[in-house]
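Why predict the complex rather than its parts? Because the way molecules touch one another can change local conformation, and only a joint prediction can capture that. The input here totals 692 residues.
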Amino acid sequence: MAQLTLKNIKKSFGDTPVLHDISLDVNDGEFVSLVGQSGCGKSTLLRIIAGLEQPDSGDVLIDGQSMLNAAPKDRNIAMVFQDYALYPHMSVGENMAMPLVMASLPLYARLPMMRSITPAGRKAQPHIREGVEKVSKQLHIDHLLDRKPAQLSGGQRQRVALGRALVRDPQVFLMDEPLSNLDAKLRVQVRSEITELHASSGLTFVYVTHDQVEAMTMSRRVALLQTGHLLQVGTPNDLFSDPANLDVAQFIGSPEINITAGESRAGQITIGEAQLPIDLGATGPVQIGIRPETISVPNAKGLVAAHAPKQGHMVTFTKRLIEDLGPEVLIHGAFAHAPDGIIRIRAQKSDAYSNAGMLAQSEALEVMLNPNQLLFFGADGQRLRPVVGAATRAEMA
Amino acid sequence: MAASKLQRAQTRLAYLLVLPATLLILVIYIIPILFVFLGSLTDYTLVSDYYEFVGFENYQKMFGDKVFANALNNTFFYAVLFLPGAFIISLIIAIAIQEQKQFRSILEVLYFLPVTSTLAAMALVWAALMDSGQGVINNTFQLFGLPRVNWFGNEDVVLYSLAIISLWSIIGFNMVLFLAGLTSIPKNLYEAAALDGADHPLDKFFRVTWPMLGPTAMFVAVTSSITAFKLFDTVAILTQGGPDRASEVFLYLAFLEGFEYFNMGYSAALSLFFLGIIFLFALVQALFSDRNVHY
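Output of the joint prediction:
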């Protein structure tokens, strides 16, 4: 049982604030990712949880108990470092045994060469060996126990780091970009292994990454940080389809969401020649977020039209470049009414697709926007939600 | 055919390229050592034109010579006094300074200052400090009711005095080496250790710092050993081997034999023996330093 609570954490390094008032609850057994660009403060937050940094103010609670005055080793947490931080002079077995040695031996028995000659040291030996064996079997590294970290591949080192963290039977598992030093293929594999580890261990996981794909695929909830502010916490789907503001919308999703300018007036939103019957309850310019996969190109031969034409609103689009991604294509271009803004369209290929046919297509395309899939943001980047129909409003009142 | 021609040209070029370095090594090291070796087989003295080859007589004389045994004995005793201090004190100071944030660079400079000074000149300052009658040290001792010490006049004390001066002059140097070693230890190893429960200073030292310092420690140990055997300036300036040969160390004896008594043949034999000792240390360094690098 370990519920992790962060309360109003603030931290600055010198005059540079890195965390502004972060509060976050991580439930027992939950997998939460802290995601954001480098320098957003996510690693600092993790280090504060681990006890490697002290916050300037605020509190870290595990199961309701403040951990601020507890040393890292007393917080019952384990951490996997980005570059693994394995002890290079120790074998894999010794690396993994380290937490057990420290926990089960008194200081005098931990001094050099004392472990094998003191009674306390000899008594603890079988227990330590068992612990290491159990975890190394679980992670399939039991054949590597005598090797030094330098003799291991990246993926094996990763497992040893996991093993050293697991061997102490922690309640909270912290990971600081553990996949960033692995090659792309291995990353996908270890990603699923970590997810399985989470499922089988039932531990509370806090996972730091700059990679939104990792965050979205692995975690139950994602906490998005930017320049020390917690922008939004929610399920991967919440963040993708219901972002709280423009920054969240832009961070989540690949390729990035398209942003174009529009005008909101009298229950109508104007995008180029299209008039959308959407009432934002406000008048003035708005920023419109359009996910690349929600734009359809109904008239282009060889592309699947995602929506039936009557639902959408047509806008003229000028194509510039087409990237073939295999099952789909990425069309780069701009709306005719805003030629400077880059718009990307991700469209599915149909059986009739051909390269020549695509290239022969005229530059100007009619594309269709689905009003239900558009996201609206004010000039300050905050999300604007369509006002519910007048009838519903009356009912609510 | 063309290939072998090219190959020959390349071989020639390779020899041409190593020629300057080879010549320098020959002229500066190998040929002088050969001359010293040849000299050590003669009874050549600076004051006589006549000399003849005497085979290994000089070496025979060396191993039967009480003066030589005394010098070797003094040198080893001095090394035993000097080395632990040169190693341990430097390491402790380096670790203490490493943990300082504010005054680190100032302290580094202060400890390094003695290294930049001329030891021969500083020896005279130490002579004044350690003067048995008017010296500051003895006066301070007296102030605290301690007995006055005859630093350079007492046979049982003189090697200690010389060791203290040498320590003062080398600690800054070793400290900088250790600091470089300490700085290169990744910080996250200490963080991992803190999470693993190794947050006691002794645990941190024995589990992380000491093993990671291995190559640096080996280097410091070997260079300090060589420094210990090279002891000469302070002896020549302060004690001239006295009192009663109590501070006559190896290199000083070689100097005495060659340039005071003009026994160049015998002095050459002593010098080669010295070279042998230094070579042994260098060999240890070369053999073990690689093995201690883990990553």
